[in-house]
Amino acid sequence: MAARALSTVVFSLLALPAFGAIAPPAGLARNLQPAAQALGLTLPTSLSSEKQAELNVYRSMPADKMEKCYLGALKADHAKDVTDYAIHQNAVENSQLKQYVTQTLPILREHAQHVNTVAQAKGITGDASMTDTSDLRREVK
Q1: Total structural domains in the chain?
Q2: pTM to 2 decimals?
Q3: What is the mean pLDDT of residues 115-127?
Q4: Could you list the residue range(s) of the whole structural domain that residue 46 is in?
């Protein structure tokens, strides 16, 4: 859970602005810092090679395809993150991480709703897992 939270926050803070996307509040990373330190973890300051490869694939796509793949991936990622955070909200034992999860879950839900609204407006409907991101998954591997 902690590693997933770190990965999500770092990708959001470092990569999303490259697309002109609305990044989550910078306070999310700052709020995660005490929990990371208590767990002996260091927050990364750059993207992992996998996330950088993903970003490069997005950048290489035609704009219309990138938008659909990106929105589909955002839908899926937000749905997974909301589910993970909701499950772990009561299961996390570290008090600082629990506080982070409890404070972040409503923000994730709000972002998920926003992503779903934008995706629907762009004609990307249905289950996030049904969005065709096969090109992206193939390129990143």
Answers
A1: 1
A2: 0.67
A3: 82
A4: 2-140
